[in-house]
Amino acid sequence: GELKNLIQPPLDKRMDEKHSAYDVACIDTLIKTSIIGYLSEVSNPSEGVLAAELASTFEFDSQQLVPILRFCAANGWVRETQDSSFALNRCSRTFIKGHAGRRLNLWYVFTA
């Protein structure tokens, strides 16, 4: 799994996962709530952001957000830098607002 995450193009990875409802829900949560954008704008993106801060910022329950973020980490979309602290990785950076990957993903969601 990890090797595939390193070499598979992010958009191919996203299309592979579009068929799994939980995968879709978790990734869409990151994209559509702007969590990806928030993580991309922090002062030290390699350290990540605590799930409690994300939950507070986006008005989520942190107990519900952590499993979503951990699922995304297990599937190579984000990484858990410390306990309950998450940062973007190569795949998730594709979906930062303004990048072509985000536009293609949103287009695919509405046409699929």
Describe, in plain words, how this protein is organized in 3D:
The chain is mostly helical. It is 62% helix and 10% strand. The chain has helices at 2-7, 10-17, 21-32, 35-40, 51-58, 62-74, 90-93, 100-111; strands at residues 49-50, 78-82, 85-88. The protein has a three-stranded antiparallel sheet with strand order 1-3-2. Helix 3 packs across helix 6 (62-74). The two termini are 26 Å apart. The model has no long low-confidence stretch (mean pLDDT 83).
Question: Which structural category do the helix and sheet elements fall into?
Answer: mainly alpha
Q: How are helices and strands ordered from N to C?
A: HHHHEHHEEHH
Q: DSSP helix count?
A: 8
- Gyration radius over CA: 13 Å
How does the major sheet shape up?
3 strands, antiparallel
N-to-C span: 26 Å
How many strands appear in the DSSP assignment?
3
What is the helical fraction, as a range of percent? 55-70%
Shape: globular
Classify the beta-strand content into a percent band: 5-15%
Mean pLDDT: 83
Low-confidence stretches: none
